[in-house]
Amino acid sequence: MIEKPLRIWYNYGNYRKAVSLTGEKVSLLGSRTILSEVLYNLCDNGIKYNVSGGRLDVKISHAPKRAIITVSDTGIGIPKQHIGRIFERFYRVDKSRSRKIKGTGLGLSIVKHGVMYHNGTVHVDSESGKGTTFTIELPIEKKTNEQGENI
Prior knowledge:
Elements: E1 6-12, E2 15-23, H1 32-48, E3 55-63, E4 66-73, H2 80-83, H3 95-100, H4 107-117, E5 121-127, E6 131-139
Parallel strand pairs: 2-3
Antiparallel strand pairs: 1-2, 3-4, 4-6, 5-6
């Protein structure tokens, strides 16, 4: 368990954001590279599409046999009519804003496929002007002792 939450201030352009990491220690079987890309893309979006003085919170917890990772921001949010398409390659929600914020539109597609590769799920909850929360659930690694008992 993380005893002291990690809190940092991140400067993006002229905007300052608070970033925190809290949660429990969870072991996963999988590709460290792919899982790092998944988290990087969610955090990168949470910072880029946030407001000045906004927050990005990453929390790690577990349920039976599942790790749960939530990435929440206090940013601009995603309009409901776009939620169904945000995981498509090259899809950008706000074309006018996209010219100002660099990106390829591949980040959330990478998230989706990286989570699927690990037999997990990704869910998004968002409201325009209020922020976005992505929830990822992944299978937890089973550890056993020499007698084959779960530890």
